[in-house]
Amino acid sequence: MRLSINWLKHYVDPKLSVDELAHRLTMAGLEVEGVHAAGADTVLELEITPNRPDVLSVWGMSREIAAMTGKSLALPRVKAYKPTKDKISIAIEDKKDCGRYIATLMEGAVIAPSPAETVRRLSAVGLRPVNNAVDVTNFVLMESGQPLHAFDYDKIAEGRIIVRRAKTGERIVTIDGIERKLDPSILVIADAHKPLAIAGVMGGTCAQITSATKNILLESACFDAGLVRRASRALGLQSESSYRFERGVDFEGVLLGANRATDLICSLTNARVTRRTDCFKTVAASRRPLVVGVGDIEGLLGTRIAPAKIKMFLTSLGFTLRPSGKNIFRVTPPSWRGDIKTVADIVEEVARMAGYDRLSEGLPVIKAVNIRVDPRPRAVKEAVARALVAHGYLETVTYSLMGQNDLEKTGLAGTPVLALKNYLSQEYSILRPSLLPSMLAVAAMNFGHGQKSMRFFEMGKRYFEGAERWTLAILMAGKRDRDWRDDREYDVEVFDLGLEQVLRQAGITGVDWGKGTYGGLDPDITAHLKLNGHAIGALGRVLGSVLKNWDIGIPDVYFGEIDLEALFILPKPEVKYSPVSVFPAMRRDVSIAVRNDVPYARIRDLCLQRDGGILTGMHLIEQYTGEKIQSGYRGLVFSLTYQSNDRTLREEEVNAVHQNILDALVHDLGATLR
Amino acid sequence: MWNFPQILDQARNDLASADDASSLEACRLKYLGKKGLVPAIFDSLSSASPEDKPTIGKGANDLRVLVTALLKEKTKALGALGGGTPCARPVDLTMPGVGPALGHRHVLTQTMTEICDVFERMGFVVVESPEIETEFNNFTGLNIPIDHPSRDAFDTFYLEANDPAAKGRNLLLRSHTSPGQVRVMRDHQPPLAVIIPGRVYRPDAGDASHSFMFHQVEGLLVDKDVKFSDLKGLLSEFCRRFFGPQVKMRFRPHFFPFTEPSAEVDISADIFKGTLRKPWLEILGCGMVNPKVFEAAGYPCLSGRQAAGQYTGLAFGMGVERMAMLKYGIKDIRLFYENDVRFLKQF
Fold first, then answer.
1. In chain A, how many domains are there?
2. Is the pLDDT confidence value at B335 over 60?
3. Range of the domain at B18
């Protein structure tokens, strides 16, 4: 809201510099966003919170400033007009939509431009002067906060005002010259035939005041806040009126505004009041006082404020206080403070006037909290992240929203997704079911900036019907290092070892790899990560066609995704010390050739099954494929370590177990010893 | 028979005069090598008379112990002088090491962790709360009525999916972390001291300071006799720990439907060394929990007079991006989600 300092000074003189005044207002919760010069005047740009419609006016601000500074407030005396016997026909179809409607008929008006002072004040706060009748409605709106509307009475068919819902298909041309389609969710002011105005939002051209107008019907009313808000939103039309109605206008202010405007219109246009009708059903419920003790205020603020001060602050803001026992008051808020509903609201008023910065400060006592938070999710996430950072991965944070197009580009089209109803753009219209598109977008952007080697990870959520699941995504591409000492390219084995190590860091062992597929990953180079037989993730090489869709010019990009939620529910691994053997270990190397389709995991499991109680370690040394190996076969060299905790092993004993393993390799897996 | 005293003396002399790696090696070979003196003495045992055997055995052993000890001592001494084994290639310890450089946590994760850590050390518990929420938790339970302008500040993305618990209402993406308060109060009784971090969503067109997705950290403390002075003290202490002890703060009245009294906290821009134009920067919103929120949560509390032994509470919320932008001088919020390597590596 814009507040003219010159206008303000008609009612209160704060005797403060503009900067000081702006600071004091900000510190009282009426935030000054900017200070502008407007000719000889200065205008404050205020950011008023939605709970304070009462200060959306010069009078409201004057009252606050007077209370804050202790200066006297001099609001103008407003002549009271009484309803006349001769009634204006007003029909309110639903009193819930319109709590009060005051119509005043003024006859014999001479429409002309407004006096210079009125024009100056309106222009300072950004309102365009129109004529001496319309300008009064705007002037009083800014001054008192009560929205008003002036109709050309002679254009109101049958002189009847009907407050009703619009009919389906009804149209109105609003005074901004735009034709608007109405429907029954919108409240209108109509005459016998047609809508004249959108209630609380904007008037129509059909009954607007022109230079030819003789008789003016002034409307001062109170419309349902929600109704005005919905209409304003539906029509995409916000006005000074709708802004105030949405926040709620003062039932008493409807009469005050009507009287003030009637007075000014009559004096400016030389019209005289011939009829006045005040139509309301509900008398504003006299407000129940709140019982507030000085101790209540101290109890919530932690600062003692003297009873005399409390009384002074509240009284100057328009509250009525009656003593009700020692240091206890019965406090009645003024009609314009609809936001005051509880004792806490009154405490805030006192605190605001005292100044938050002057209230005491101390540290709270924080008791042990009886909320048992499962420590596993965080422990797992932290351990995994630590390990990944140690492996050189950069953590990313990407949007949880994406578009169907991202899924299509990634080979994930058709994945069930949660869709947004009111998305901003197609690009961000669904919740992601996979982190692969997110990571590819990051890779593509960085590739575009010349990055050829990358390692990224993210711990974010994937979203499904009824679930959002923490997920780890890893992407890597390019060379492991950038110098001659280790210039190998990443390959899938590096990747899976890395992942296994990372999980081990988090205390997760016993994961296994099995064949599997994942949209967007090459089915020949994709594995599922399994835990107790269930797939909890996938890992593999991104398809060339997908990379092409994303404009990533690196041939081998590896991606892995693990459902962290599956890891969270694993019990914390129990770590038990196993004594380090004091007896010597014996190491035997094994070199075999096996068919390519025999996975290492089978070889490993077979060795471990025949451990004879003394096999304590197995370590892969080398994989060999080449001329010396029959095609379709690969050579593997690994070492087996034998050791006992209670004796030095004898040569023969080791030989027997070792031979048993070798036999099994040959017999069960068709391996040849080399 | 061997003249052991003389042999030992000779050994001492030999080693004393050795002054480089090669002469030490020569000494080692002379005494301990395969064809050296010690093996020769041991070999002579087989042909010695039984009464000489102990003397010879002991002598050989003494010699071995002596030479070994002196060699060790001498090698160490030479090493300290800069001798030692000559290297095959030049050693330059300032050469970059081999292996991947360390990675980095994202600056948002770091900032979020830092914020949570401050409060955890004061006794708060970090809890998670879902991003997909109901209208009740996001609005109604927080005293934000439908069709009220106070909802404007919380423009919200709705999902196509319906809320299974509320007929005709859609699920939504939480527009703030405050629904976490509603959940915590539904499931637990006071005393409460919780921190709720996470992602939030608002349909704001993106620019340098707006994003449709961002992160918040929410705090809630509920107990008997929690006061506004506690709120001030707690958040002042937080600011000092997060921004440094010299930070200046101010609390000004504000409006949030779920707190009363409510405040916004500003910090002075001067700690950022003149990079910002405004003198005060808003960093967080806070207040005393509105009794209506307790009511919605089913907590015993009167909206009338405060009676002794009643629960009161304080709540606060801050934007993680905003805190990081201020702390690190980041001018565009979009940089966080772009994930440019050159950005990520700076933190």
1. 5
2. yes
3. 4-80
